[in-house]
Amino acid sequence: MATTTSPSRYTPTGAGFQNPDFPNPMGPYDARVIIYGCLVHVLQLVRYKTWFFSPLALACFLETVGYIFRSLSSKDNPYHIIWFVVQYFMIVVAPVFISASIYVCINKLITWAKSVGYVLDQWWLSPKLILWGFVTVDVLTTILQIAGAALIGSSQSNQKDPATGNNILLAGLAVQSFSFTIFLAVLSLFRFALFKHPEKSTAVRAKDWFIAALAIASLLVYLRTLFRLSETAQGLFSHLSIHEVYFGTLEFSPVVLAVWILAVWHPGRWLPYDTAAASRTSRVESSSGKEKPRANV
Questions:
Q1: Which pTM was predicted?
Q2: Strand pairing partners for 296?
Q3: Which tens digit of pLDDT belongs to each residue from 233-287?
């Protein structure tokens, strides 16, 4: 169960919030670097018509709004109910949309692998299960986190014990972390399955950089989730929560890096044309009575 430290040393006054270490970043580039990433993603979204990747552009927008509200809260009281809930909602929800974009990409990669001859019949490699299963868990756990954050903000504003809200938030983060651990295992098993058949190595090598980029972005999102879990487990006003260096390196930086990695290795250059062409070829061959050689995995 999470613990909380007394907030008596960190009480807001008319002069502003008195704890200079509290994580309310005032760096001028915090929101700007995400805005640039958002613009890059929107431009590529339109250019490649990869509408399935729209959630990532939305994640950038939410992050931007979240950091604007964090900046506003740092000038007054971080536990002002409006500032706190809005910034926490935006910054907590944004990575969920990054994860959703990654789930969609894995969904399409598995579809592509099947189209070039792999037989991926394992139930845990079902594209629909991966997409909707993990998205559903993320949505439910995020609702828990937002509810917990709202209770924390309300409790702090009314000078009440925030332990209940913190424990709800902790439960949501714990389940989300466990779910993402399973996803990373599925991603690893998918890549190992492709390794089993060297006769398909040319096709796989064409996607290797993209698969690696997805894996790194996934690990960054996972790192951020584990940080949030550890921070919440320690409790409000704990060492992790009141020192900005941890937030900057384990929340802000992983998300920004994931956004830019997926901008450089954008799925528009790796997925849509190949997948569509392979699907059309598969349909043509099926209608003509031809069968493609398939690799059992």
A1: 0.80
A2: 119
A3: 987 777 887 777 888 889 989 999 999 999 999 999 888 554 444 445 444 444 4
CB 260 within 8 A of CB 39: no
Rg of the Cα atoms in the chain: 22
**Closest to 211 (Cα-Cα) out of 102, 56, 57:** 102
Quick check: helix, strand or coil at residue 4? coil
As a whole number of angstroms, the distance between CA 243 and CA 168 comes to 23
Q: Which of 49, 97, 33, 38 is nearest to 267 (CA)?
A: 49
Q: Say what angle helices 253-264 and 201-234 make with each other, to 10 degrees.
A: 160
Q: Are 89 and 61 in contact (CB under 8 A)?
A: no
Structure tokens that stand for 291 in this block:
């069968």
The tokens of 179 are what? 């779910």
Q: What is the mean pLDDT of residues 29-48?
A: 83
* Cα–Cα distance measured from residue 69 to residue 66, given in angstroms and rounded to the nearest whole number: 5
Reported residue count of the chain is 297
Residue 5 burial by Cβ neighbours in a 10 Å radius (0-12, 13-18, 19+): middle
Sign of torsion over alpha carbons 80, 90, 219, 265 = negative
Question: What are 120-164's pLDDT values in tens digits?
Answer: 777 778 888 999 999 999 999 989 988 888 888 788 777 788 888
